Amino acid sequence: MTTPAGIDPRGPRFAATITAALLLVATFLALIGISTARTFGWFAYQPVDSAEVGSDTWAVASATLAQRALDPGFLMTLVIALLFLWSVLSPATAPWGVLFRRVIRPRLAPPTELEDPRPPRFAQGVGLVVVSIGLVLHLAGVPWALPIATAAAFIAAFLNAAFSFCLGCQIYLLLQRAGILGRAASTV
Fold first, then answer.
1. CB 97 within 8 Å of CB 87
2. Residue 174, Cβ neighbours under 10 Å: how many?
3. Rounded to 5 degrees, what angle do the CA atoms 37, 151, 71 make?
């Protein structure tokens, strides 16, 4: 298997910075939306012996599918998932990569070394899987699923943006060493 042409390692870090900012907003919106809200089944005018007294449920569980899909946290996370999908399917045309190559990279010194594009692309796929699970569980009415998924993806993007530590890349390398991805396992 031939190794694809290397990429500037600052590109994925730039994309992770923008992605982390978007995921932080999505996490905030998910935390203040119906995913974490509680509904109360009674009000002061109801009789005390009502079966509804004290019964409170999660708003996301009692919301309709349309209400769940129109939640601002859901919509923001859906946009992020589509950006992840775009970067997995066509990294050459993904918006953050294009912005980096056309606007940022010409203003920087050439990179001292290039990196294999497969681990960052795999990391984008991991991000897609994480936020997709949150989206599906949110639509299914699972409380806290959306903010937990966006927060987990935010942590990974923040680690890459701030410390150049790509969790998805590390997972890729572990799977590569195990012989599951990329190449056969080493015989050392």
1. yes
2. 11
3. 40
Q: What is the pLDDT of residue 170?
A: 97
57 sits in which H/E element: strand 56-58
The three-class DSSP label of residue 159 is: helix
Percent above pLDDT 90 for the chain: 82
Half-sphere exposure of 177 (CA within 13 A, CB side): 6
Query: Which amino acid does the sequence have at 39?
Result: T
Residue type, 91: P
pLDDT above 60 for 55: no
At how many degrees (to 10) do helices 167-177 and 118-139 cross? Answer: 110
Q: For the chain, where are the alpha helices, taking DSSP H only?
A: 10-32, 59-62, 65-69, 72-89, 95-99, 118-139, 145-163, 167-177
- Taking only the tens place, the pLDDT of each residue in 137-162 is 999 999 999 999 999 999 999 999 99
DSSP-assigned letter for residue 102:
I
Would you state the structure tokens that stand for residue 48, as one six-digit string? Answer: 């005390």
Tell me whether residue 9 is exposed, middle or buried, using C-beta atoms within 10 angstroms of its C-beta: 0 to 12, 13 to 18, 19 or more. middle
Are 76 and 62 within 8 A, CB to CB? no
Under DSSP, the state recorded for 183 is: S
Is residue 43 packed enough to be buried (19+ CB in 10 Å), middle (13-18) or exposed (0-12)? exposed
86 SS3 class = helix
Contacts for 102 with CB less than 8 Å, ≥ 6 apart: none
